[in-house]
Amino acid sequence: MGKYDFPDAGGHFGQFGGIYMAETLIPAVEELRRQYLHFRDDPEFKAEFAYELKHYVGRPSPIYHAKRLSEQFGGAQIYLKREDLNHTGAHKINNAIGQALLAKRMGKKRVIAETGAGMHGVATATVAARFGMECVVYMGAEDVQRQAPNVFRMKLLGATVVPVESGSRTLKDACNEAIRDWVTNCESTFYIFGTAAGPHPYPMMVRDFQCVIGNEAKVQMPEMIGRQPDAVIACVGGGSNAIGIFHPYIEEENVQLIGVEAGGHGIASGQHAAPLTGNAKVGVLHGNKVYLMQDEDGQIIETHSISAGLDYPGVGPEHCLLKDIHRAQYVAITDDEALDAFDALCRFEGIIPALESSHALAHALKIAPTLGKDKVLLVNLSGRGDKDMNTVARIKGITL
Amino acid sequence: MSRIQNVFAALRQAGRKALIPFVTAGDPNPTQTVPLMHAMVKSGADLIELGVPFSDPMADGPVIQRASERALAHHVSLRKVLGMVAEFRQQDNRTPVVLMGYANPIEAMGYEQFASLAAARGVDGVLTVDHPPEECAEFVAVLKRHGIDTIFLLSPTTEPARVQRVVESASGFIYYVSLRGVTGAAHLDIADVAQKVAAIRQHTNLPVGVGFGVRDAATARAIAEIGDAVVVGSRTVQEVENSPENEVAANVGKLIAELRGAIDAK
């Protein structure tokens, strides 16, 4: 493989990515790009980001050898990168802090965000409180119901949560509404976008902020086992936790990269949120060109996943490229498989994972028995499952 | 000369400004669209912007979002919209039709197939909201080969260097978005619009249409003083929404006639 250097100056990852935005937002996106490129290499910015990650988020997050779980499934050793231990309980805070520091430098007093499961909304509400900014979070009305505890957390943190009633009332509709807010208020407002997708520079910027995950793991794994893992496994909705742990490993050609999409009721059922595994066509939505779940007329179709954070018809442009150049492999895990993995981690390790992260774990549990005990799988445990109590209880027929 | 050039040339000669209403194809249902287009022309529309419904209309406010939803409930695809244009052309071979919508339905059909079908059905121009010049050089070239104009938006926040870049890709006319925000927003600052349109004219000889925020005879009149065309979007769609189905064409026609009168008033 030649030198991997994406995106290009226009934000393209091969044919993917770009800036597919209405003219009204192009100046805002362009200004963001200029400012990010300026501050990304600024020593003061880097130092402040590192300080916040260490003292506020609690980084580095540990890597944990899930020995009992590995023994139970009888094969490869499973290691967990514990992003669930971060302040606010997921990897989302890494990116929210980075963007908030940039917003501060750009003089923006108001931040907005879209959220699916609510973790990015909570992370944004948290940093807004931390830095004294007004915060508005757009959330699909369906997700407001599915993720009630996170809605309450955001309100406690002082954010306004706006339920979005249009379309499928999930993450993509929350994105539409946040974009509409940004079009109207772009001079006062910074849009803290939650995943490594959207118009350039977001896929690059979010990736850069999330790369702290992979950069730490690359140091931690040799310390623990004397070498890098055989495979790195992460769930992919938009794909920010996955690209954060994958990217530093891209040039480590012996490390397999596996992205796990939401298979919902199964790829064959059509009710899933797995554009890469389901061979979706290339399309344009939310400012970038990506593999996109759509009907034959190019209308975006409604997706399904048990996990609100993965319930999205597109995927970040860099994952599209990594699939096409065969540097990463993408698979799907069904709702039921994710729930089984969720239970297994609770019972064997005393860790309650987010339903999103349970997808990544489920794939590890699927392949571990086929591999020797000397093989090592590193799973990005991107978030904790406290927010999913209502969902899981409902499925188990329990009223809380 | 193209239909778009003809219309603007004739208006310029007569010292008049163009009136460009927007309606979403298939709203409130597919059988209404062609009669509605004819009614608008009869009442004084010079060019028609026909919205192609999309599931995720990010740049539109609630009025046009709802229009898109009503049309999609009838499965109005890009292909069906092109069919409506062909039907319109059976009786009207003079009034230009510009399709306005989002990139993905066109991406899904493919540029070449879209352009050849659109040309055959009688489409004169295409405005794709989320296709800035940076991302659509190939699309513009394909449309040009089929004799179709590419209309681009310019906004109050567009910097002068970028205005130059956008007008270089544009043909037909320029659509100046007179407001920050989504379609249907309020607060039109006429003096600011006048200044921005004058600045755009430094970069191009193309006609400049002004839209977003034209809601009544008075704003239409004020905009007509500034631009070469007055684009009326959400206000027209609102009239469609508020009318009983058998009165849509009549009520929208009445609105267009009123705006026409205001624009032409000396």
Structural class of chain A: alpha/beta
CATH fold naming of chain B: TIM Barrel
**Strand fraction of chain B:** 5-15%
CATH class division of chain B: Alpha Beta
Estimated radius of gyration of chain B: 17 Å
Name the beta content range of chain A.
15-25%
Q: Any key phrases for this structure?
A:
heterodimer, A: 400 residues, alpha/beta, four-stranded antiparallel sheet, 42% helix, B: 266 residues, TIM Barrel
Structural notes for this entry:
The complex is a heterodimer of chains A (400) and B (266). With 400 residues, chain A is α/β, with parallel strands linked by helices. Chain A is built from 15 helices and 14 strands. Chain A has helices spanning 26-40, 43-57, 67-73, 92-105, 119-131, 141-146, 148-156, 171-185, 202-210, 212-225, 240-246, 317-324, 335-349, 355-367, 389-395, and strands at residues 12-13, 16-20, 63-65, 77-82, 110-115, 134-140, 160-164, 189-191, 231-235, 256-264, 281-285, 287-292, 328-334, 376-381. In chain A, a hairpin with a 1-residue loop joins strand 11 (281-285) and strand 12 (287-292). In chain A, helix 10 crosses helix 11 (240-246) and helix 13 (335-349) crosses helix 14 (355-367). The longest helix of chain A is centred in the N-terminal third of the chain and has 15 residues, at 26-40. The model of chain A has no long low-confidence stretch (mean pLDDT 96). With 266 residues, chain B is α/β, with parallel strands linked by helices. Chain B has one domain (3-264): Alpha-Beta Barrel (TIM Barrel), CATH 3.20.20.70. In chain B, 49% of the residues lie in helices and 14% in strands. Chain B has twelve helices and nine strands. Chain B has helices at residues 3-14, 33-42, 62-73, 78-89, 103-109, 111-121, 137-145, 160-169, 190-201, 217-226, 234-242, 248-264, and strands spanning 18-24, 48-51, 97-101, 125-128, 149-150, 152-154, 174-177, 208-211, 229-232. Chain B has a nine-stranded parallel sheet. In chain B, helix 6 runs parallel beside helix 7. The A-B interface holds A 10, 18-24, 26-28, 166-167, 172-173, 175-176, 179-180, 183-187, 281-287, 289, 292, 294, 296-300 and B 54-59, 61, 65, 69, 72, 75, 77-79, 102-109, 129-132, 134-135, 152-155, 157-159, 162, 166, 177, 180-182, 185.
